[in-house]
Amino acid sequence: MTPAARLQAAIEVLDEVIASARDDGPPADTIVTRYFKTRRYAGSKDRRAVRELVFRAIRAVAEVPESGRAAILALLDEDPSLDDLFGEVRGPEPLIEGEAVAPRGIVPEWIAPEFSPLVEPAEWPSLLERAPLDLRANASRTNRDDMVAKFEGAHPTPLSPWGIRLPVETRIDDHPAFAKGLVEVQDEGSQLITLACSPGLNEHILDLCAGAGGKSLALAAVAPSAMILASDSNRARLSKLAPRAERAGAAIETRLLNPPNELQELSDWRGHADLVLVDAPCSGSGTWRRNPDGRWRLTPDRLDRVIAVQKRLLEMAADLVKPGGRLVYAVCSLLSREGAGQIQDFLSRRSSWIVEETPLAAGRLDGAGRLLTPGHDGTDGFFVARLVRPC
Asked: Are residues 201 and 280 in the same domain?
C-alpha cells in the first residue's frame, strides 16, 4: 500500500469506528483487525501504519467526529506531511477549503464535570498515553524475581508485589512461562484490587462480576486454599475462565447468572461469603489509554445506565456477605458518581456498614475509597473501596 492508500484505509476504518461507537458495537481494535481480514494484500507494515493513524486520530479528538475524514484532518496541524497525500491515486479525495475538521481535545466537554476532583486538567494528557504491558506473576507457582529474569527488558512494577512490566510490543502468548500458567497479563492497577481484598486462607470468596476471570485468578494465586466462585451474566466472557484457570492451576468454580434472578441463583451463598468482590461494569474512563474510543462510546444515557447497574450489584452483594465479612467495590473509572459517589449512596441506605481503610499504599483518598490514576500512579484508573458488614 502507498502512504496515500494507507491514509484512505485509516479514514475508512475510522468511519466504521464512529458508527460502532454510536451503535454500541465492537471496539476500535476489533474493527481494525476485521478490516484487514478481507484485505489480504496489506502487509504487516501496512497494517501497523494504518492502525497507528487510526489511533492517533482517536486520541486527538475527544467528541465523536462527523466522519473519519474529519478526524484525520484534525491531525494535519501536527503532521503537515499528510496534506500531500490528499488527492493522490488510491488516496483520499483532495482537500476542500472550509471542510469540516473535528475539534481536537482530550476529554469530552460533558464528561469533565463528572471527574473526581482529584483528576485535574493537568493530569488529563496522561489518560491517553500509551499503556504499558504488565504481567502478574502467579504467586502460587513462582515468584516475581524468577519471572523478571525470563523476559527480555522486564522489570518489577513499583506498586504490586507480583507485577512485571515489559516493553509494549513484547509478545507473550507463545512464551513458555505464559503457556505454563506462571504469568498472566494484568495491569498493575487491576492487580492492586487483590491487595484491597486481602483474601484469606480457606475463605469463601465470590467474584460477582468476574468477566473472563482476571481478578478471580489473582485471588486464587494469593489464597489457593480459598473456595472461589466466579459468576457473571455474560456466557462468552465467563467461558474464557476455565482454560485460564486450568493453565494457572487454580481451583475456581463458575456460575452463569441470569438477571434479574441472580440472588435466587446464588441463594446458597446468601449471607455466607467472607468476601464479595464487585468489579462492576462502568464507564471504562480509567482505561482510555488502552481504549481511547471509549470516550466516543460514552453518553450521558449510557453512564446513567451503568450507574444504575452498579447500585443494584452493590445491594445484591450486601445480601451475600456474611456478618463480619467484606465487600470490596471496584470500578475502572475516574468519575465520581461511579466511585466515591456510589459508595456514599450505598452507605446512605446501609448506614451500619463499616468503612475500612483500603490497604493500599498507592492512589489517593477519594471519599470512602482510594482512586488510582494514570498520572499519579502509572496504572489504569481504578476506584476501590472496602466495606464490612456489621456482626
From this structure: yes
Residue 234 and residue 381 in one domain: yes
Upper half-sphere CA count for residue 51 (Cβ side, 13 Å): 16
* Alpha carbons 7 and 9: distance in angstroms, whole number: 5
Q: Please, which residues bridge with residue 330 across strands?
A: 279, 384
What string of DSSP letters covers 6-45? HHHHHHHHHHHHHHHHHHT---HHHHHHHHHHT-TT--HH
pTM: 0.94
Same domain, 238 and 322: yes
The cell for 57 is 486520530
Q: How many domains would you assign to the chain?
A: 3
Residues 167 and 305 in one domain: no
| DSSP 8-state class, residue 107 | S
> Is there a single domain that holds both residue 202 and residue 345?
yes
Q: Catalytic residues, which ones?
A: 332
Helix pair angle (214-222, 188-197), 10° resolution? 50
Residues shown for the chain: 391
**Helix (H/G/I), strand (E/B), else coil: 254:** strand
Cell (9 digits) for 94 = 483532495
Domain coverage including residue 282: 188-388
Q: What pLDDT, in 10s, does the model give residues 148-206?
A: 999 999 999 999 999 999 998 898 999 999 999 999 999 999 999 999 999 999 999 99
122 is a domain residue: no
Does residue 10 sit within a domain?
A: yes
Q: Model confidence over 295-326: pLDDT tens digits?
A: 999 999 999 999 999 999 999 999 999 999 99
Placement of cell 451503568 in the chain: 306
